[in-house]
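debug: dumping io for the single-chain case to check the tokenizer round-trip. Nothing else runs in this session.
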Amino acid sequence: MNRWGRIAAGVVVLAAVAALCGCWSVVTLDETAEDQAWVVGVWDRIELRLPGNASAGYTWQLAGQSRAGVVELIDGPSFEPDAPDLCGSPGVFTFRFRALEKGSTRLRFEYRQPWEEAMHDTFEVALIVR
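debug: decoded output
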């Protein structure tokens, strides 16, 4: 195996060991996390779940981040209705982030219909990455 093959194999082994030992965790936050500071580790995943109703045309949007580069959005928003068989059912919008580097940032979200200027609701949370 050449040098690059050994390096790639080493990286895969380290990632597997870190995942198995729980070095990277998933921190799940919901609307009760508003206006609080949450401490996470570098490479931890943050899952934010906010209630809403997509059938009314509303969606949660990431409206701002006080310091770019501390966390990155990796998925979302996705919507899961509370009652999938019921048309118009409210549910949960989910955003997934990854902590990239040490530091702190505030995430601001707006709940609105994309074609309207007015916001129906807002949500803010502070993240401290250590």
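debug: round-trip ok. The helical segments are 3-21.
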